[in-house]
Design brief:
Elements: H1 5-12, E1 16-21, H2 31-46, E2 50-55, H3 62-66, E3 72-79, E4 89-93, H4 94-100, H5 108-120, E5 124-131, H6 143-162
Parallel strand pairs: 1-2, 1-3, 3-5
Antiparallel strand pairs: 4-5
């Protein structure tokens, strides 16, 4: 997880909107929404960043984010592994991950469309994805996915606190 610290420091050095995406009724797919819920209090205390729990309707927040003063948008979502182990983390510019089609979001169309609007408004859009094990209907998140989520939460909190 520490290999992502330099990129996260770069992202969080500027005002950032952290957007958790995920369907709470699709097991591991809920991980982005879970992370957003847990990060919101710490980010509010840091004061430079906003957190939105968009669940599976990121498009509903698109224009309010586009009109905001943030420079970066960090989308946190479950991703498809394409051979990667569940719980693995990917981080990069969304357009780079789209082009590679590796570890890409489980919300492709809505996220891709929203990212296009955000880029048009001058925002840099990043994806932090956690490889899901199970996105069938249900409300249980795999222990490996939860461990990765906790590591992400801890890292983002520490970086945000140190960049005050």
């Amino acid at each position: 997880m520490t290999q992502f610290a330099p990129v996260l420091r770069h992202i969080l050095a500027q005002p950032t909107c952290i957007v958790g995406v995920g369907n709470p009724l699709r097991n591991d797919d809920a991980v982005g929404a879970l992370i957003a819920e847990r990060l919101a209090p710490a980010m509010a205390a840091a004061g430079r960043h906003t957190v939105i729990n968009a669940e599976d309707v990121i498009e509903n927040y698109c224009f309010s984010i586009a009109d905001s003063a943030v420079r970066n948008v960090l989308v946190i979502d479950a991703v498809q592994g394409h051979g990667t182990e569940p719980g693995a983390v990917v981080l990069g510019r969304l357009e780079d991950l789209e082009a590679a089609d590796s570890g890409y979001s489980t919300h492709k169309l809505a996220l891709s469309t929203t990212a296009g609007v955000l880029r048009h408004h001058g925002k840099d859009v990043w994806l932090l994805g956690i490889v899901a094990a199970n996105t069938d209907y249900g409300t249980a998140i795999d222990p490996e996915i939860l461990a990765s989520a906790e590591a992400v939460i801890d890292l983002v909190r520490r970086i945000a606190k140190s960049s005050k």
